[in-house]
Amino acid sequence: MPSPSTDPLNFYALCTALEVEISQGDWGAVSDRLKGWAAEFRGTLVEPVDRQRLVKFGMALLNSGDVADCRGLAPVFRPACPEAIARLHEMLIDPAIGFESRWFAGQILAKLNQFDAMAVLVATIESPDEMTASIAMDTLSHFGKTEIDLLTGELERSSPSEGHGQGSPRRCIVRALAQISDLLVIAPLLSVVCDTDPAIRLLAIGALSAFDDDRILPILLEALRDTSAPVRKAALTSLGAKAQYQQRFQSSPTHPPQTSIDWLTYFQPLTLDLNLEVATQAVIAIGRLRSEAATEVLIALLNAPLTPTPQALATVRALLQNANPRTIAALLDACALKSPSQISITIEIIRGLGRLHNSAVMLNAATLLVNWCEQYLGERSGLPLGERDPALLQAIAYSLGNLGQPIGRSWLDRLSSDPRDRVRITANVAIQKLDSAPSTDIDEV
């Protein structure tokens, strides 16, 4: 038993009273007593055994108390760190414990004003248990000025020379800041966009992309030249969206004019990036520009013989998003340039035409598709339809049916006689669509 001189605010008497109230199941009294004691005691219990006892009482309350009893318990656990952090973490990651108790454990960890507690929350984001990860992310996203200041201070004290790695303190801090949707995190994130650790740069770029702030655009443009491919891709993703919205705002008379940026000069060089994911993301970003110059760049890329298939497929989708007679004709022309090994690109183009919903271009698309079929699949092509790739013929039937134009009927009649079931059935369903009222789109059989 501690002596009166060493017993902080009569901690032994507190424990004795709590044991009685817990045995009686009076959780309201337990909560009031703990909170009242914590309001007067602002330090840390010296003896580990005392910290463990305090944690035991707090955990019992979290497990059995109601919502009102469990609110505002962070000051109760604060004098018991680091034991409190370990036990709260155990509760947070235990799927056998109820959601409310685990949620309160996460909230308390966030309010302990201890970097070690925040590090636990950040590590929990990557938990394989979906609920655990969700609680951690939700908790971090609601951090306020106090928590942000604590993280920023730790970041300033950390050094890039401390080493990289999944568990490095510096990466942990930046990952925590990246989860917070508060303008206060912009400044500390900007301070690490040139960090030697590419994972930190990626976290910073990804998080900054969510904010609309004048300081961020130059950083994103510079990140397009980063040595790390994931960082370049993240910057491209963000800038593609910003370019699309900027053009939309500039076309609106109710929105103030913005500084004009020649986005194509930034995006086009990256279509040749050595990293295929970056090069493909550049295509997506260019497609969002919806300008004639962007369209010409995409058409040239699609026709280039060395364009990798994944990038070519993304190019097809980008052109279809801005479909007009010029792009439709260019897409069908590109089909003639593709080798048999690139049949997936041709099929993507043909099927993409069947997904058009703009009535102004649907007739044009059907006409051009029928003409293409006559030229490359007709009798003069020298190869019977029955020997053509069934996936290609099925795509043609699908698109002619969805486009809903009578001009496609003759080719659908031919395809309905194909000896292969998948082609014949799709063609017959397409014919039914032409002959009946509009219905839902035809799916491949």
Quick structural overview:
The protein is an all-alpha fold and 445 residues long. It contains 25 helices and no strands. Helix 14 packs across helix 15 (229-250).
Note down, in words, how this protein is organized:
The model is unreliable at 1-5 and 439-445 (pLDDT under 50). By secondary structure, the protein is mostly helical. It starts with 10 loop residues before the first helix and ends in a 10-residue tail after the last helix. The longest helix has 22 residues, at 229-250. 64% of the residues lie in helices and 0% in strands. Among the domains are: 1-142, no CATH class; 340-445.
Global geometry: elongated
Instruction: Give the overall pLDDT as a whole number.
Output: 90
Q: What's the number of helices? A: 25
Order of helices and strands: HHHHHHHHHHHHHHHHHHHHHHHHH
Number of distinct beta strands: 0
Unreliable stretches covering 5 or more consecutive residues: 1-5, 439-445
Task: Report the span from N to C terminus.
Answer: 80 Å
- The value of Rg in angstroms is 32 Å
Main sheet attributes: strand count, strand direction, barrel closure? none
Proportion of β residues? under 5%
Portion of residues in helices? 55-70%
Structural class per helix/strand content? mainly alpha
